[in-house]
Design brief:
356 residues; mainly alpha; 3 domains; 14 helices
Length: 356
């Protein structure tokens, strides 16, 4: 696996990429026979329908001519068998994921039940607190039963995984004192209000024929700060990224840096976004910066920062890894566009070290 990206070994075929998620669960081999790197299931490779369907080299070379000579025949591929085998492989992954969610939820429940039992033994416990603890304990036991029942429910793998994840989230919300629906609704409404306020401010400035001021996006910065704070990202993160357009991308970046001078938005984005979020919304943000630059007459064809961003987001290795340090190239590009617009944009270079 460590040599897949090296040009001397050939290129990893798109078809072989389909096997990557399943490598921890099934025996696989790797070959560059034929020039390109191909990943294949070890067991029954040549007769495997999914192996044949994904591997043209196997089709062409894995079947010798008959006893009496003649031409080499390409084997028949049963696409129904391909789909069935692919589904079976996916089921293994989903079952493993569901099992992990179930075990995590049960461990969380066991730990919280032990904690509650200890608190209930306290001599000075108030009746009100005792009632709340007993109610939580009862609810935890209900979730525990549902999770244990899930093990023998006979659900299809995808449904089982989704249900296990739903129960795990419900358990975590209960322990944190967050009602599943009400809390989510309240937060969604709050974020929506911030989004509407930001859009309304921007719209009012636009209607007056004036350039939208960075300060119009303070609510957006606040909402995104909450979504980015801590490990991972919150519910509003993706929505907030989607709101960025070429007409306000620079103003949003400037206002973020005014409120968070210690860390630019792109640095925070790269540090907290998941891989798929980086690819999707990192490209979206880059496209908005590009469109604004072109609108202002900036030539990007020779811009090294733009090229570096494009290479990182769409290059050979972007399917597997995106370097967080590309934030510096984003920021350099933002600074150039901002200067063209009459703004001053300041940022600190990307660093893996914690910032005060």
């Amino acid at each position: 696996m460590f040599g897949l990206g090296m040009s001397t070994y050939g290129n990893l075929t798109n078809a072989s990429m389909a096997y990557l998620p399943f490598m921890p669960f099934n025996p696989f081999g790797i070959t560059n026979f034929g020039g390109d790197i191909q990943i294949f299931p070890v067991e029954n490779y040549q007769t495997s329908q999914i192996g044949l369907a994904f591997n043209s080299v196997a089709q062409a070379s894995g079947w010798p001519a008959g006893i009496f000579g003649g031409y080499q025949m390409t084997p028949q591929i049963n696409m129904n068998a391909v789909v069935a085998q692919a589904s079976a492989m996916a089921a293994q992954s989903l079952n493993a994921m569901a099992s992990q969610e179930i075990n995590t939820a049960l461990q969380t429940i066991a730990g919280q039940k032990a904690k509650i039992q200890a608190q209930l033994q306290a001599k000075d416990i108030k009746d009100e607190d005792k009632t709340k603890l007993e109610e939580q304990l009862k609810k935890l036991e209900e979730y525990e039963k549902q999770i244990n029942d899930l093990k023998t429910s006979g659900m299809d793998p995808q449904s089982a995984y989704l249900k296990a994840n739903e129960l795990k989230v419900a358990v975590n919300n209960l322990i944190a004192g967050k009602p599943d629906n009400e809390e989510k609704t309240d937060k969604t409404d709050e974020k929506d209000n911030k989004s509407e306020e930001s859009s309304q401010s921007a719209s009012e400035s636009s209607n007056q024929g004036a350039k939208v001021k960075p300060s119009a996006f303070t609510s957006w910065v606040d909402a995104m700060t909450e979504a980015i704070w801590g490990p991972g990202t919150g519910d509003y993160f993706e929505e907030g990224c989607q709101e960025i357009t070429k007409d306000d991308v620079i103003e949003r970046m400037i206002q973020w840096s005014k409120i968070h001078p210690e860390e630019s938005f792109m640095e925070a984005f790269m540090a907290d976004a998941g891989y798929n979020q980086k690819r999707t919304y990192g490209k979206h943000i880059l496209n908005q910066i590009r469109d604004k630059a072109l609108e202002l007459g900036i030539d990007l064809s020779k811009d090294e920062d733009y090229k570096a961003c494009m290479k990182e987001m769409s290059g050979t290795f972007s399917w597997a890894y995106i370097d967080n340090g590309v934030a510096d190239h984003y920021n350099a590009l933002i600074k150039k566009v901002a200067a063209k617009m009459g703004y001053k944009y300041e940022y600190s270079n990307y660093s893996m070290s914690p910032k005060s």
